Amino acid sequence: MSTTPTTALEAILCIPPLHLHIKEEATLAALRLRAYGLWKDTNIGHTRILSKEINKCPQLDWICDKTRKHYVLDRHYKVAAEGGKTDKADTVVIEVYTDGSKTNSGTGAGIYCPELNINIAQPLGKNNSVFQAECVGITTAVIAMLNRKVKGFSININSDSQAVLKALTKHTTTSKLILDCHKALQALSKSNRVTLKWIRGHNGNRGNDAADELARQAASLRVAGPEPIIPIPFTEYKTWLHNQTQTSHSVLWSKTKECKHTKEAVPVLNPRLTTKLLQLNRPKLRTVVGMITGHCPLNKHLSILGITDSPLCRACMETEETPIHVMLQCNGVADKRAAHLGSSATLHEALGDLGGLLSFWSELGWLE
Ligand SMILES: [Zn+2]
């Protein structure tokens, strides 16, 4: 109903109020500008937004992978898709395998090369992505070969990450890690013939399996020193900020003195309820929202609107006809209530999985 308060609807649907949403977007814009090196904190007015948010969420101060667009115009190494013909090499071929892994405990990269005796399990932070781990895997492998002064070989670097290989074929990048990887590959290509090859993961290839195992070991290792070990993906900022907005929304909801009816049904923000509500069709959604907010065509609300004369319950004529009365207390509909809703003590309990509530009201037929 058009009288339903916005605050109540925002709480039911877990949509942050406009002022919180705008703050989140503005902080994100500031973080983006900072990543591009364009942010100036003058400590006056709106530029204080970042320091305020970092106070609340210190991770926002972590360096991120996003950078200004860089052009990659020369490339001395090759990137080959699976099945691509390998050059008939007149030199010895070295096969290197790299892989990345992410588990609940962290991310890690694995590098394996039997010819050069390279077995590296490199743990990365908890907040990094698989893409980043795969990318760092290749960079680490290249640096290990540079340190061993490998010269005059054909080197095949095998990775199962199509995304990273694709990023390395592009002419622009906004990722620091991809840029580092490119620079390392250029250095190795000066005195070697380097090819990046895509191989299907978990396909019985011994080298890939060994790299995968190393990456998984690395992901479960604890990293030395504080996070972040490598720059975090920009999307992490988004997740943190969004969680923070939701927390602020919860606090706001718990403090509000309005929407008493809604607060009885939804005492704390409940994303699971929101998901269930959004799966309902419009008439059902209208019923449930009416029950939660009290803004529905029952006598109490209709009499406030001046549509009926009496706010009294049509079943018992004893007290006001509100959703709380009908669903929890009214003796006039006790049998039907017991059949559909059981014996709920609170409005929150009566919501249940919404099925009982909907069948109860459709049997009563009072809302039509
Ligand atoms: Zn009654």
TrEMBL record:
The keyword Nuclease applies. Residues 90-220 form the RNase H type-1 domain. Pfam families: RNase_H (PF00075). GO terms for biological process: DNA replication, removal of RNA primer. Its EC number is 3.1.26.4. It catalyses: Endonucleolytic cleavage to 5'-phosphomonoester. InterPro entries: RNase_H, RNaseH-like_sf, RNaseH_domain, RNaseH_sf. It comes from the Eukaryota. Keywords: Endonuclease, Hydrolase, Metal-binding, Nuclease. GO terms for molecular function: metal ion binding; nucleic acid binding; RNA-DNA hybrid ribonuclease activity. CDD domains: Rnase_HI_RT_non_LTR. Belongs to the RNase H family. This is ribonuclease H. It comes from Pararge aegeria aegeria.
